[in-house]
Fold this protein.
Amino acid sequence: MKKIGKQTITFENPPSILETASIVGPKEANGPLAKYFDKILEDEFWGEKTWEKAETKIVRETSHAVLGKANLAANQIDYCFSGDLLNQSIASSFGLRDSNIPLFGIFGACSTFVEALSLASIFAESTGSNNLLCCTSSHFCSAEKQFRFPLELGNQRTPSAQWTVTGSGAAIVSKTGNGPFITHITPGKIVDMGIKDASNMGAAMAPAALDTLITHFEDTGRNPSYYDGIFTGDLGYIGKDILIDLAKKNGYNISSVYNDCGVLIFDKEKQDTHSGGSGCACIATVFSGYIFNQLKAKKLKKVLLIATGALTNATTAQQGESIPGIAHAISIEL
């Protein structure tokens, strides 16, 4: 393992992604990627009394699902990296409290899934850890309650607003395995362009995605054509267009290989999600379901996964603060 360029890390013995699992809510099940998810909920409560308890259950059951698919017991997992959007990451800590796995609770907003994969890869390479669990979640109802307005108010959403994905995605990173392999990670820097509109997260996060994208290409000497697919986390339709334009102005035409998980997970016309999907579970479920399936089928062989996050909360918004963005990238190759 060594650092190359400004901030990218490359692996001499790249860790492998053994298996993934995903659970999503009913709205996600009505989207174009439904067949790729492992389990679909009938409603947002899933038999629980609160949305927060439902999200906790989703985390617990997704972690169980990925262990089952990988034929591993919990005591075969060395460490777990997990986070979510709720205060103090309660969905992760409560969802995994009975797992008996050493836990690193992490927070990168909607970039948390790739942050988890990045840290797990470093642990696999540097500590001799054999198997590491990465898991993130989000829930439309709990996120709306915490960050925006109670659903009971029926507030009108702006055209630039995104729909927080209800679900969880999990992956097991291992020292051994036949791939796909995590070959490079490019941790992101905080980029803040002064945007304050909490209903336009895509615009706030796109500059951070650009910074990480350019840094990755400069550090590795690669260009967009090296990859079969470049996927950002949850820029949505507006943020996706902004990133394509910004990248082109900086000499990188990514339009032929690029898409956003927030665009992929919902049908914009039929489901009325405005600018698309968002949340920790957005990139986690799309990767754990659709993208990992394409890698295993060898329809995709080289993927750059860039998870985007808005580092804000309800307090900073009320105090008139801008929205800092961050984006972490990993290169996944067969």
About this structure: Residues 201-220 form the longest helix (20 residues). The longest strand covers residues 16-24. The chain is about 35% helix and 25% strand.
